[in-house]
Write a structure and sequence with these properties.
The structure is a homodimer.
Chain A lengths: L17 H15 L6 E8 L4 H10 L7 E8 L5 E7 L4 E8 L8 H13 L1 H8 L8 E8 L11 E9 L15 E6 L5 E6 L25 H4 L12 E3 L6 E4 L2 E4 L2 E8 L3 E9 L2 E15 L11 E3 H5 L17 E10 L5 E23 L4 E18 L2 E10 L4 E9 L3 E3 L9 E5 L2 E4 L1 E11 L7 E9 L13 E7 L4 E3 L8 E11 L4 E8 L13 H4 L8 E5 L21 H4 L11 E11 L9 E13 L15 H4 L2 E2 L15
Antiparallel strand pairs in A: 1-2, 2-3, 3-4, 5-6, 6-7, 7-8, 10-11, 11-12, 12-13, 13-14, 14-15, 14-24, 16-17, 17-18, 18-19, 19-20, 20-32, 21-23, 22-23, 24-31, 25-26, 25-28, 27-30, 28-29, 29-32, 30-31
Chain lengths: ~675, ~675
């Protein structure tokens, strides 16, 4: 799979390919003067070239900048994370430094080591024995990033939440039987630090002694465990055909579809990333990505107070991406893209099919009927979906970038998977969540995402503004009947966090002030359709907030600088403070008519329901970026009108035989 | 098409059928002792039986209540609207009364009469002559409901907005050339009341004299006018196949699909209505419908200050529904339902295919992967869509009720069509809207909808509550790290309007307090996922607000009473006050543990863009009703897992031939 010499050069923003990973790990080992036995690699990922260099390459035919990667690794004898920037083109380490105060993200090897250490530790087994479990049952654990409740903690810790599975079915739902203790292990030494017992009553108090397991049956989702008689029988197949193939073309990672083009990036942390997004040749966005996501839990009882995952920074949507399978994760004509990760010894591993791309029909895109003669024009809303699904232990996220023919870019986020479950005594209910099965508490929590948008609307100098719709009041001369309203525009001139205001229909827009739409006499722009959400409930004194400032405001604006990609900073695992937006948004610098970044924080406060168990139906959120006076007319005015010759729909014959001459009883 | 004697009896909530319309109009003529020449019928529509009677029929096998209709008509010699309630079963008028103070909705005959009167009136033609139009051009007009700016106006008035079409193409876009005058006609006498000239500058001022037309080309959407070279060439067909047929069954108007069942109602005013909605045999909602929609415009210049359509009350989503066509308005396996209307002489007219029903795939419904072994379960999100599209002059609404397998009921509203256009001098821009083409102003406006939900969650006695998520603050004993939050529930005990509060994640829920989910120890319920929206900007002294109180609060709760269906009251055309929620929500009566109605007002403030012209891409809004501790587990846990055997997706082969051994450049 090594890139043959005859292949075209990679685009500067292409993910690493297999050969490059090996070049990088080899360079690092040479640089350190060690062998693979001395080092555990965690991450080797593209280190994106500077925007200056990349734009020269894209727009002016300058030579491609050198390919570089960023590597995270440990020397085996030390818990300290090392970061190296490697020039892959030259095969040399350009920079290397330790981060003794930070914890890197989790890697699969480490996760596996902790998982096994927990399951085999004598003290854990001793505790398990007290449960007096029936034969055939099986203990499981999910090592969780420890979180933060102490400014001085520097060990790399994992809290292993423990569960019971009642069968060996590969999809037996152990989350249905949470056990009342959660050992803490040191991820570096694999030592047991504490065998923390969990509260199972209404208060913080712990039972004096671990009690024998109170037998209960698991709530299963495994089709094999449920058995064929458990399924509804009346779901008929629905298939999507594209007899002439798809409307997209793929050259390397360059995608073209319906006047759109972009480079499909991918990395361990963010999963799919869209670069250099254009419509009809005009530049729209330099980079659009999911930047971070944090899940604080609302239960004050230890250790739950510490539960706050940063699912991008602590592990990564790329690292945890599923290998997607045909006919399951997408429907229709599907293109797949692989990802790549590094083994602990520095070898590349291809992650097959971590991104899928396909077209969907989303109903009517636009329609008008001339009522005088009944003549109609209908355009369907064809969309291109670029999707990944990430499994972060119990939970799943589905992230999709969705393009449509009206030049809208949507970010479709779905939360699914299994809610994090904690043990609770039968019959006890606490205010911190919902009992979703006997003995199973699903604690209320928030999911707060941060989307990062680096616009380049017709050029690099853009401005973020917001428009408020405000009634004209007390101006009887101008507005005698009191019906008038105006749009008041406010320019954002300094970096910072900004509020939505639904009462004023506040709309954040990105404008290119030097490019005027001559018809509207307004600057060309794109507007953000946000997901208005409750922000973080935890206050300014909490670690929850200090670790992720992005959760406190829905809108952030910063001035662009290379490599400022991750809202809460580079290292979120056991972080004590935010080294991302907290720093960048506090800089006193110009963001008007400049290279700016717009960040949107949004999410759900998830008050759990019985319906969320065993696997929760997707909770959908959609952020959109829509043109506003960017084009002169509806960009989808040129889409061929919908017609039966191509759509080949079928007409349903009414089932009511007695009514065959009387359609639908009329 | 008359109902044969052998056909099963209609369900009490079925729309009228053809025979019934004729029975009703005949009974009215007999009652009045007149012939069809003396009367103009406007509406004959089902008058729904009382809920008491209907529930006895549905649940206790009581005989079907008599079929009744409500008719609106004029005696030709009088402008006064008469309302009659006709017992169709008995063929007699049970009640008949005049509404001298109200205007009924528009009907097609009246619309046509006004339209023609305007186009042929000598004074209008005289004004047109001043435009010195080129040969081959054609004048058009849209008669608009007059609106209200005077408490004493009792004439039935129409303001005819005038346009120019440059070709005889049936889809020539006359909205692209608005003309600077708007005659006002009396809809009863067809007399010209005023030939109002329109402001075309920055202020209210009118040109001294109508100027010759300043030639401009129209922005067209007609495929014939655009010509084949105007269309993108790279859109490939996408087809939806259901080789084993659909998953629904239809008996008369009774629909069953994936554990759901409902009666599909339909009427002239609301279009499709869902009655007696159940899931897995359990009662959920007695009636769900779009109740009203109003569009106030934000331009204070006369006559625009009066523009405020009530598109359900003034005309009706049923009356203006398009006849849908296969392969255009839906894609896949489509069932159609007809509607029915009455001619001015009392004869029934079938409106073919005004509602379509089909299944769609909306991506992943839920997914979980056991990361230990990569084993995945995926359920796709199959949905049933019941849809209509309504053309209200220039504008289109798409209303769809969408059911899914997780027992969610969604109401999907899309706004499309052509924005209302007004003339503006070239080069002039006003703060009230956007110039969307040279000489064409699209004024900013709001679309405010009101959805009506009469729940019956496991019975008729339900309670509306709202839950706020509130941090636990300043309780260091309980919450030492400040991470805890609680759900605070407030019961709604009195009718009225209520606010959303995103800062507290306020969630409105309908509960059956007498039915406890034993697992969660909480009452069974459904929650509303609203569309948080800016409410009406016009203040309490304006007619805009007085005519539709529902626009001022997102949530309303009233006690159920028969026939209280329409948020702004029965007659909205030229209404001066709200006779709906304004009255019902002001009653001092119990709504706790009672038969309650939940109303949700939502919409968009539409600041127009060049991209909205000539036909605007759909603006989508989605309201959802989702179970909350109503079921014991995820209702879609029994959906067969997604699999390629049934889905038959196809794998895309990478286009980059040079990279054929290197998938996606990795």
């Amino acid at each position: 799979m090594y890139l043959p010499a005859s292949a075209p050069d990679p685009h500067p923003l292409d993910p690493l390919h297999v050969g490059e990973v090996k070049v990088a790990s080899t360079a690092i080992l040479q640089h350190l003067g060690v062998t693979t036995k001395d080092v555990r690699f965690k991450v080797i990922d593209l280190y994106e070239p500077s925007k200056d260099e990349t734009l020269k390459y894209i727009h002016h035919g300058a030579p491609a900048p050198d390919r570089r990667c960023r590597a995270y690794f440990h020397r085996l004898k030390s818990p300290i994370l090392t970061i190296a920037i490697v020039n892959i083109t030259k095969g040399v380490v350009e920079n290397s430094y330790d981060a003794p105060d930070s914890q890197g993200p989790v890697d699969w090897v480490e996760y596996d080591l902790v998982h096994k250490a927990c399951l085999s530790h004598p003290k854990v087994l001793e505790e398990v024995a007290k449960l007096k479990l029936p034969a055939g049952s099986r203990i499981e654990n999910d090592p969780w990033s420890f979180g933060t409740d102490d400014h001085n903690e520097r060990r790399r810790l994992f809290q292993c939440y423990m569960y019971l599975a009642l069968s060996d079915d590969p999809q037996a739902n152990h989350y249905s039987i949470p056990l009342p203790f959660a050992p803490i292990f040191d991820g570096h030494t694999l030592e047991l630090i504490d065998l923390q017992r969990l509260p199972t009553g209404a208060t913080d108090e712990i039972d004096e002694e671990t009690q024998p397991w109170d037998p209960t049956s698991a709530v299963e989702y495994s089709a094999d465990l449920l058995g064929p008689d458990s399924f509804r029988k009346d779901l008929k197949p629905l298939q999507v055909l594209q007899p002439q193939g798809p409307s997209f073309t793929i050259q390397g990672r360059h995608i073209q579809w319906q006047k759109w083009s972009f480079q499909l990036g991918w990395n361990m942390r963010e999963g799919p990333v869209l670069h250099d997004i254009r419509y009809d040749g005009r530049s729209l966005f330099y980079r659009v990505s999911m930047s971070e996501m944090t899940v604080p839990y609302g239960d004050p009882r230890s250790p739950y107070h510490r539960k706050q995952a940063f699912d991008l920074g602590d592990s990564g949507f790329g690292l945890t991406s599923n290998s997607l399978s045909l006919g399951c994760d997408c429907l229709g004509h599907i293109a797949y893209f692989n990802g790549i990760r590094v083994t602990s010894s520095g070898d590349p591993v291809i992650m097959p099919n971590v991104v899928c791309m396909h077209e969907v029909d989303d109903g009517i895109g636009w329609k008008h009927t001339n009522f005088r003669n009944g003549q109609s024009s209908v355009v369907r809303d064809r969309q291109l979906v670029v999707q990944c699904t990430a499994t972060v232990a119990n939970y799943e996220y589905i992230l999709a970038f969705v393009l449509d023919q009206a030049a809208n870019l949507h970010v479709d986020v779905r939360a699914t998977g299994i809610v994090s479950t904690m043990p609770i005594k039968k019959g006890v209910h606490v205010p911190w969540g919902t009992t979703v099965a006997p003995g199973v508490l699903a604690v209320n929590h928030q999911h707060l995402f941060c989307l990062r948008v680096n616009p380049s609307l017709d050029g690099r100098s853009n401005t973020v503004v917001y428009d408020d719709c405000i009634p004209v009041e007390n101006e009887p001369q101008l507005d005698p009947f009191g019906c008038a309203f105006k749009v008041k525009q406010t320019q954002i001139q300094k970096p910072g966090g900004y509020d939505l205001d639904l009462t004023q229909n506040r709309t954040f827009k990105i404008l290119n002030e030097s490019k005027i739409n001559c018809i509207a006499n307004k600057p060309v722009g794109y507007k953000l359709h946000p997901v208005p959400s409750q922000m973080l409930m935890m206050g300014p004194s909490t670690f929850n907030l200090k670790r992720g400032i992005f959760t406190t405001k829905p809108i952030w604006v910063t001035k662009y600088r290379d490599h400022e990609l991750w809202a809460s900073g580079e290292f979120t695992n056991q972080s004590r403070e935010d080294t991302g937006l907290a720093k960048w948004a506090a800089r006193d610098e110009n963001v008007k008519n400049d290279d700016v970044v717009l960040w949107h924080s949004f999410g759900v406060t998830h008050v759990t329901r019985t319906e969320d168990f065993p696997v929760m139906p997707t909770e959908k959120m959609m952020v959109s970026l829509k043109p506003v006076n960017f084009f002169d007319i509806n960009p989808s005015n040129d889409v061929p009108r919908s017609n039966q010759n191509e759509n080949k729909s079928t007409l349903h014959q009414n089932d009511s035989s007695c009514c065959s001459t009387r359609p639908s009883r009329i």
